[in-house]
Design brief:
The two termini are 21 Å apart. The protein has 293 residues and is an alpha/beta fold. The chain is built from 13 helices and seven strands. Helix 1 runs parallel beside helix 2 and helix 4 packs antiparallel against helix 6. A hairpin with a 4-residue loop joins strand 6 and strand 7.
């Protein structure tokens, strides 16, 4: 159902494999439209010729400095090198030696920031000695500001070495990451690829369900039911469950049937009952209201 987008992404990866400098790709769509699947396809297609460093941003870690980089270093396997060790040390992922301990104690916040940037650049350049490197950062609408500055620093480096960057974000989420994308488009020119998409076309949606059900043609009644989903990859069972929860919570308009994945963002001062559910008149909390979202 994403043949055109996947073809464009694979063509971009082919260029990353062949050229002596890097590129930037940005994938944007609403929640549940297939960004993660497209990203996974890209990573599978890139390996093993390209070293893929993968980090994921999360809403509850948006205030942790350099979380995207910390997550990347913690989730990927590397051959241990001096550059790798130095980067992990300055991010607090391992104890420093005596020389680093003395250095870190003497650095001002601004100098510490520059030291992190320099050590990451050193690490990436060392990795490119074995071939192209692809940094993949998912959900940059939740990117912490320190990581945003870090990516802003790295975008120009794509012109100097085979260091490429693949970013994904939700279309409905505003945020400071938009300025980063503008810079990437300006700095990279034709080396910048934006991929934006929405729901599947009706024919693609029906074809997808036919493949899942392993049938040649869908029954007419089922096909009519699927048309109401406008290509959104939310299953009928999931839609029923979400509708039941919202009905029990008393926030469902009469005779409505939810067809989109919920997105909840409770305030940090929300009470335990409002988050977990319950109360003198028990009803679902924010955790339940985010079911399948």
């Amino acid at each position: 159902g994403r043949a055109a987008e996947l073809a464009a992404l694979r063509s971009w990866i082919d260029e990353v494999k062949q050229e002596p400098y890097g590129r930037v790709c940005y994938i944007e769509a609403e929640a549940g439209m297939g960004k993660t699947r497209l990203q996974a396809e890209a990573i599978a297609y890139a390996k093993p010729e390209i070293a893929c460093l993968i980090g994921k941003c999360e809403p509850f870690r948006a205030n942790i400095s350099f979380w995207a980089l910390i997550n990347m270093l913690g989730s990927c396997e590397f051959v241990e090198t001096d550059a790798n060790q130095r980067l992990k040390t300055i991010l607090g992922l391992q104890p420093p030696d005596s020389a680093d301990d003395l250095l870190l104690r003497s650095l001002s916040p601004a100098d510490l920031r520059q030291e992190i940037f320099g050590r990451l650049r050193e690490f990436l350049l060392q990795e490119t000695a074995n071939g192209p490197v692809l940094m993949v950062i998912e959900d940059i609408h939740w990117l912490d500001l320190s990581s945003l500055d870090l990516l802003d620093f790295l975008v120009p480096a794509t012109r100097e070495a085979p260091i490429s960057i693949l970013l994904t974000a939700r279309a409905e989420m505003a945020g400071p990451h938009r300025s980063l994308l503008s810079k990437a488009a300006r700095v990279c020119g034709d080396r910048y690829l934006p991929i934006k998409f929405s729901g599947l076309e009706e024919a693609d949606s029906l074809a997808l369900v036919e493949r899942l059900l392993e049938v040649q043609t869908l029954p007419g009644r089922l096909a009519d039911m699927l048309r109401s989903y406008a290509g959104h990859p939310l299953s009928l069972e999931e839609a029923i469950e979400i509708t039941q929860i919202y009905s029990a919570a008393g926030i469902l308009s009469s005779h409505s049937f939810l067809r989109a994945r919920p997105f909840r963002s409770p305030h940090h001062t929300a009470s335990p009952i409002s988050v977990i559910g319950g109360g003198s008149h028990p009803k679902p909390g924010e955790i339940s209201l985010a079911h399948h979202g």
